[in-house]
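FIELD: query
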Amino acid sequence: MGLFYSVLIRSGGDEVTFVLLVFMGSEYSMQLNASRIKVLQAQDDVVNSMKDVAGKDLLNVSQHHHRYKHLLKDLIVQVIIE
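FIELD: result
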């Protein structure tokens, strides 16, 4: 907002210039928000990919009784420690 005030004072209250600057500010804001959304989507994709891999690994482990029992024991111990 500081940029808009300093430009408005220098422009002598020219409303056309002010509207143009506000539009340019909103365009920049929209681009910034779009960039943030892209980053969040990329993070979401990574988390979902990791979740899918973990689910497949868990399914694989659960088919082997001894490995599944060992995994459950380790998870229970981890929860108790934390």
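FIELD: remark
Residues 15-62 form the longest helix (48 residues).
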